[in-house]
Amino acid sequence: MQEYENGFVIEMDEQRRRHLFVCELFDNLISLMRQMAANYLGISIPVAKEAITLEQFMLTRLGLCSRDEQLTSFVEFKVQKFAPRQFPSIKRLLCLSSTCIIERDPATYAAICARPLKTVHLVFL
């Protein structure tokens, strides 16, 4: 990554969400990650030939749900989010677009997370 020394981006799961990390020993980390994936899982983790800019990362960090039409909310609800990593609960906006469920920070309206509605398997009441 050009803007961060020792920075790298990992693209995750079928939604292709991107996560930015900085590590002093990133070459070592990536080498070991690829080696362990090959040795223990029998899979190959490719490395992109081209670098990504911070601007490109910010525009695509939500993966397949990064386009404006997927992030344009039709309806939004104020919610409290309860999660083991976040105690006490935190305020969020839970929004729906035509194809996605979007979690937003109410103070900044920034999209925290976006997932396709088709990936919601079940709602417990």
From TrEMBL:
GO terms for cellular component: endosome membrane. It comes from the Eukaryota. Pfam families: RME-8_N. GO terms for biological process: endosome organization; receptor-mediated endocytosis; regulation of early endosome to late endosome transport. Residues 1-121 form the DnaJ homologue subfamily C GRV2/DNAJC13 N-terminal domain. This is RME-8_N domain-containing protein. It comes from Onchocerca flexuosa.
